[in-house]
Design brief:
The structure is a single chain. The chain has seven helices and seven strands. The relative contact order is 0.13. The chain has 267 residues and is of the alpha/beta class. It is elongated and about 120 Å long.
Length: 267
């Protein structure tokens, strides 16, 4: 377990999970390790890892995995939410949150989960408020400036970077599978962290174009052979000049001093 903890913390450092914001909520001070010269608060990764383990045990305590609702209005967390639900069996709610999902029984998307997981308490404030009305416990990924109202378990981490969000959900899903006995702790999880990363649709389209070889057609220059130009003339050869005219002789042999034609007219 100790070795796994060290490896997980090293991965958190690589994904910049420890980087907070310049602002710090007074309830998040307990999770702040120090403050840099630039004013950025550094999150204590040891406490973040411990809170991940606590959250995983809360998830495993629920018998039916579909009773766990995981929401993320932040785009960077949408892919991670869907992947987490795929491997753990939770119910995803990626994208816009429909108001009344937990409180209005008339709506078609009405749900009664036993646990709510959110990516950002500030962005997902509507779902947290509805969970408080319905007495549903909430697990949230909290940055140093996140409000902690109605949040039961706060996981201190950077919830603004796509790598950090993906890694946290990957660690949480792996620990849940370990506790359920789906995979053994003696072997590593064969799912890569990269599959949880959010991918920009424009980057995907550019990658597809490059894979199809469209980029080579735009960079290729048309071949032009100037030697075989139309007319086949030799510009250095002056023997083919029209009429072999001499430039010293006046043009047309006209005498410019002679009076013009019709000079008898009196103007």
């Amino acid at each position: 377990m100790a070795l796994t903890k060290e490896e997980d913390i090293q991965m958190m450092l690589v994904c910049k999970t420890h980087l907070g914001t310049r602002n710090c909520d007074f309830r998040m001070k307990r999770y702040v390790f120090r403050r840099t010269v630039d004013g950025i608060h550094i999150i204590h990764l040891g406490k973040a890892w411990e809170k991940l383990m606590v959250a995983a045990r809360m998830i495993v305590a629920i018998e039916n995995p579909s009773d766990i609702l995981i929401a993320s209005q932040r785009p960077y967390g949408s892919r991670a939410v869907l992947k987490f639900s795929q491997y753990t069996g939770a119910s995803p709610a990626a994208g816009r949150w429909t108001p009344g999902t937990l409180t209005n029984q008339i709506t078609t998307k009405y749900m009664e989960p036993r646990l709510l997981i959110v990516t950002d308490p500030r962005t997902d404030h509507q779902s947290i408020k509805e969970a408080a009305y319905a007495s549903i416990p909430v697990i949230a990924l909290c940055d140093t400036d996140s409000p902690l109202e109605n949040v039961d378990v706060a996981i201190p981490a950077n919830n603004k970077g796509k790598e950090s969000i993906a890694l946290l959900y990957w660690l949480l899903a792996r620990e849940v599978l370990y506790l359920r006995g789906t995979i053994s702790r003696s072997q590593a999880w064969d799912v890569m962290v990269d599959s949880f990363f959010w991918r920009d649709p424009e980057e995907l389209m550019q990658q597809e174009e490059m894979d199809q070889g469209w980029g080579n057609d735009w960079t290729a220059k048309p071949e032009q052979n100037w030697e075989g130009a139309q007319g086949g003339g030799n510009w250095d050869d002056t023997t083919n000049a029209a009429g072999d005219a001499s430039w010293d002789a006046p043009a047309g042999g006209d005498d410019w001093s002679a009076p013009a034609a019709g000079g008898n007219q009196n103007w």
